[in-house]
Prior knowledge:
Blueprint: H1 3-29, E1 33-41, E2 75-79, H2 89-104, E3 112-117, E4 133-137, E5 144-153, E6 162-171, E7 177-178, E8 187-188, H3 189-201, H4 232-242
The chain binds zinc ion.
Amino acid sequence: MNKYVIVALLVLIISGLVLALPPQAKEKDKGPLEKITFIHYKKSNAKPPWAGGGNDSAATCYGFLAKGAKWKATENFLINPTNSQGISSSLIVNSTNAGIEAWDSESLFNIFGNPSIDSLASYNNGSLDEKNTLSFGTISDSGAIAVTNVWGYFSGPPKTRELVEWDMLLDQTDFQWGNADADPAKMDLQNIITHELGHSAGLGDLYTSGCAEETMYGYSTEGETKKRTLESGDIAGLAELYN
Ligand SMILES: [Zn+2]
């Protein structure tokens, strides 16, 4: 081998090493995989302990699970329509699709993939199982309408942050669900699912009264439908994450 070939080979090897370094360094800086739980309550007499922080102010009306924590790949999800109230699968699926559309239509990135009906899909007792799910069950916490767990990398440099799974549980023991347009005594499926999907997308709850019209406002009640459509804070928060 002549010396020019050797030099060329050395340059190739060294540049290969340099190119390989940044991902390793990035991986090392990544924070731990963590779970954040959001419980959506009916009553507004007490501020939940996790309220506050972030950008939760009347000026912006949006907050994040963690700044920069978003989906980097689109994932499909499972809907288990099994419920004790005789609610049709089609109402559940249509309500979910409308909620998905509300968020995805404001994002340049396709946050939510396609739903599949799966009668085995579950909240998995709040544990990670690499499946994004929506299902009905019982939340022991009194006044809790719904709970959504979101897993991700929330600490470490913002560029390394990422969401990896969500599971939503709707309480069928304490609340009667349906379409509030047809029956205002019902907890509106589309209304609550749209709010919970906001957590799945990376947004936090709002508890300031100045943000009460936002989809991400932290309380709801029977008959409410205003969370079906996004408000300016919801859209601004989503845009800051994805657009
Ligand atoms: Zn919430």
